[in-house]
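name: query_chain
kind: protein
chains: 1
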Amino acid sequence: MKIERLASFSDGDVGGNPAGVLITERLPEAAEMRTIAAEVGYSETAFAAPTASAWRVRYFSPESEVPFCGHATIALGGALASKFGSDVYSLHLNDTQITVEGFADNDSLSAALQSPPTHSTAAVEEELAAALKLFGYSQHDLDPRIPPARINAGAEHLVIALRSRALLRTMQYSLDAGRVFMRTRGIVTVMLVTIGSNQTFHCRNAFASGGVLEDPATGAAAAAFAGYLRDLDWLHEGSIKIVQGEDMGHRSLITAEFSEAPGSSVRVSGAIRSIVN
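structure:
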């Protein structure tokens, strides 16, 4: 089995979030996919096998299966385009169906996914207090323009907006404590974000639930965040850009486009670069 290694949402020839991709005639057993993902060592690996009308896809982190992963879907779109040509590919996930459009132009790869439907709810007081304690922030550090919330576009995330880029830069937490916090609450990542403009945001995503301290680019959270901004009637003009991974030395660029229809799918796109082993 050949595992392809691709970095999604790259900034030119650098950055992006590495993902493994395995395209095979039949998906391995879950235990084997978990083992493969752990051996690959990236935050997620996408496994895809053809069906009569689509591709069956499952995602595994080094420690667990996740219901949906944006950057691994983008990587899969690039891999499918490279093998079978630029096209829109239907994907059957564990709980929903989505599409990814892959583009292959000479040595250039990119992709755009259509997320599952989005929804959001205000963060409960106890959960917010525990999250702030985990990261060492206080209520004074929050930006009231984007209230803390549970956000979802196929996977559950907690978003917390901070008042300054400097506060975001200081993000730190215990991986073990973060794993307990996220897994006991069914949260895939905690998204810490600052506002650059109405359409530009800087963020960091803690991914302890998957055994990873931080994700350099998180497409699923980007889709959920775009849906949340829509719920807030944010002045977004139909699209936003998210800069992620800068403080890790892996600057990533994510574009999210969406209509005004409440809960509707979000289009998340970005460039892809191959990782040379």
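note: Helices lie at 30-40, 70-84, 125-135, 165-169, 175-185, 219-231.
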